[in-house]
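New to this. Explain the following:
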Amino acid sequence: MDSAFTDVPPTTLADLLGREQVMDIGIRPQWDSPRVAGPAYTVRCEPGDNLMLHAAIYRAGPGSVVVVESGDLDYALAGGNVCAVAQRRGIAAFVLDGLVRDLGEVREAGFPVFSRGVIPIPGGKKKLGTLGGAVRVGGVTVHPGDIVVADEEGIVVTPAARQEEVLREVRAKLAKEAGESLDAWEEQHRARIEKALGEQGFTG
């Protein structure tokens, strides 16, 4: 089911799910990676420490998106080798509320990383966080198995319990849009805008 979301733009999901399921603009693709979609494997790291993310790459299933809460903008959560091992083990992407390093290696390998930026210094590996619990990443609460869709437009999280319903709504919306000409869209759009302006008393 989650693989079906690869063809779903985050913009369409955001239209259906609303602002609370869209991560904030600080978490961005760190290179021009393709869209990724997969079930969340959730990780919480203590600030300044990346032990639990490094543990997660050996525990997350193939196709999963590793989603990390860290609250840290001073140390990198992952570098080139960690991303390479994650990629080799079939992990689809990292979505990090934190930083990475070795970006050139990561980009060359073609591993999708969404994060708040890049810093060259690594975090420690001395503090236990958690694996498989609810995390707060980019302002969105993410549970294990929630479907994460990420590309250059942003990152949207579909609750696992709603994925079938949301996918049906997405397919219907995309089909409707595909069958609508720009002329028809413009006509409906203009009518909607003029109506909204009139309701506010605008007469210009």
Notes: The longest helix spans residues 182-199. The mean pLDDT is 96. The chain has six helices and 13 strands.
